[in-house]
Amino acid sequence: MTRFTDPAAAIAEAEFLAAQTDQPQAIVRDGDGMQVMGYNDAWLQRLDVIETVTPTWEDIE
């Protein structure tokens, strides 16, 4: 996983991964930064989720 300090970059990565994997992605706190990971992984690890990105119908088609 890549560590982000720029929120816009983390959101862009989460949107890209959601479109590619057709799975919701979570942006989680990681010390002073953020990481993007699958929402299920973040939930199972009980991490501090800042934002969730889900794939859209446009991504699926």
TrEMBL record:
It comes from the Bacteria. This is Uncharacterized protein.
